[in-house]
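ok new one. same drill as before - structure tokens go in, u give me an amino acid for every spot. 103 of them this time. try not to just spam alanines like last time pls lmao
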């Protein structure tokens, strides 16, 4: 049986790196991972979506949409959610071979 690496399969079925289709796919995947992480932490802290929404200042439906990657939530809302969960957030930004780390 022949095996394929993930990059080769993704290149073939989604598009090669640098294409708009591939970038959209990778951005969607990242948003999905953020949503899953928020859900995991919320459940570990025994919070309901409604309780987390109250801490953040949004409705339960907004928390649900973020956790399920249904919406492109505002950046500041995502930060508020992580702060309400007492989670430390770091961002790495790379521009023209320069790396900037934001805490």
């Amino acid at each position: 049986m022949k095996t394929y690496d993930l990059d080769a399969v993704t290149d073939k079925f989604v598009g090669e790196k640098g294409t708009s289709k591939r970038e959209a796919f990778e951005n969607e995947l990242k948003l999905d991972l953020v949503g899953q992480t928020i859900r995991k932490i919320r459940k570990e802290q025994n919070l309901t979506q409604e309780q987390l929404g109250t801490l953040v200042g949004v409705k339960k439906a907004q928390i649900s949409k973020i956790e399920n990657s249904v919406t492109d939530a505002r950046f500041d809302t995502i930060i508020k959610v992580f702060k309400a969960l007492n989670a430390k957030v770091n961002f790495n930004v790379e521009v023209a071979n320069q790396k900037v780390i934001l805490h």
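DSSP finds five helices and two strands in the chain. and btw The helical segments are 6-13, 20-44, 49-56, 60-67, 75-84.
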